[in-house]
Laccase (Lupinus albus), 565 residues
Amino acid sequence: MMSSLGFHCHKSLLMIIFLAFLGLISFPAEADIKKYQFDVQVKNVSRLCHAKPIVTVNGRFPGPTIYVREGDRVQVNVTNHVKYNLSIHWHGLKQYRNGWADGPAYITQCPIQSGNSYTYDFNVTGQRGTLWWHAHILWLRATVYGAIVIMPKPGTPFPFPQPHREFEIVLGEWWNNDVEEVEKQGFKMGLPPNMSDAHTINGKPGPLFPCSEKHTYAIEVEQGKSYLLRIINAALNDELFFAIAGHTLTVVEVDAVYTKPFTTQSILIGPGQTTNVVVQANKVPGRYFMATRTFMDAPIPVDNKTATAILQYKGIPNTVLPSLPQLPAGNDSDFALNYNKKIRSLNSAKYPANVPLKVDRNLFYTIGLGKNSCPTCVNGTRLLASLNNVSFVMPQTALLQAHYFNMKGVFRTDFPERPPTPFNYTGVPLTANLGTSTGTRVGKIAFNSTVELVLQDTNLLTVESHPFHLHGYNFFVVGTGVGNFDPAKDPPKYNLVDPVERNTVGVPTGGWTAIRFRADNPGVWFMHCHLELHTGWGLKTAFVVEDGEGEDQSILPPPKDLPTC
């Protein structure tokens, strides 16, 4: 016979098991290790009546989604089966002290040689939301990309009502010809390469393009339920509008940071950025187009064709014709500026906006396009791009390795903190070459110092919007404006309470953007325009963030299988 004490213990144990089953008691769990195998391989793919071999991960286009939870450790073994040497960047993951896993070729690692493997091993700490991964060499990210979905820790809800279901929506570009050949031809001619032949949604252009009936992405929804769309702009060179016919979008997160929710008919998303929106399936059941098209408010030719996918209510036959959404005009600057002003950090007790209020380093970088002499090019010149009149030259040895092992002669740490010659940055178009130099020059930043960086567009050749991405960090976008930045009048207007926090920001056409961050992640971190065209022309640099004095404030030792150049 069971004793009274034993009976009560047994009953208590049953109650604990029952409550745990209901989710009312949570037990501490060790972080999981999520392992993925990425085989980089060529696959024949057909779009727009054209078939061609493309570089893929695991034969998929787009590539596989990485699913993890905040706090997990992730190991992705990448095996390179193609002729190109390449690397993979985990866009937006902070990689604390672990630049070896960041991925930009010749910045934090040498590329993975054909026939070789490398394991990216990193922790997902203090981040949750939507990010993405992509190749980070040449133009290979045209087809080598995929989503990263970071779920909150177990038992932690979203700061908005739980949606019924989620979908990843990855926007991209498609060229009928070999992308690497397109880029090489442009470089040889000294001109921008041919623009893409279509945009895509999850690798598919949609039925407005020839031979695309079967190349249309569709999602099924149920009346009265809400859905979370994780939207990623993986396009190489285009900022994009996105909308769903007849439906309002509620923005709840950008770049894996929660925002104050706001509603909009369309979103604007730059290359490298992510946006999570909630959609209520509360319209007349039918079929509705999701659509994306380029935003460009400068006199520059772009691929302005509309890619589509379908949102279809359950039970509606495929014979019903979908309706198209009304996207903003392709050059609607006002929409772009007003939309970005609406995005603000949630700044709650659980998710605060820790904006640096005191600044240790003030940096001012001008963005310029220019021309260099090129006797073999079409016009006798080749286009290039620069920050503070420095067009960045990629090294032959990875910068992080050179920094960590104290190798001399690989880079200089004298990147100018402001332009050498001030001028009316956004005045009449300037064609003069203001002494643009080339070199592998980076900025050095003391550990844990606070930085304000103003990025100023200029009218050197032409004004244009530029999405800038900083590796290894999030930053706060404290101010933005049109025209020339005024160091006396503009800082008092900064938002230092709830500015948007992100990893990629658009500098408006003929305008400026001010960002702030705390340099608490030691290493070498790439900063570049996320228009692949401009990156290739030299619109990039890097920050060397020095080690701190604490034992957990220095760069981790490199992994044993780190690729060599």
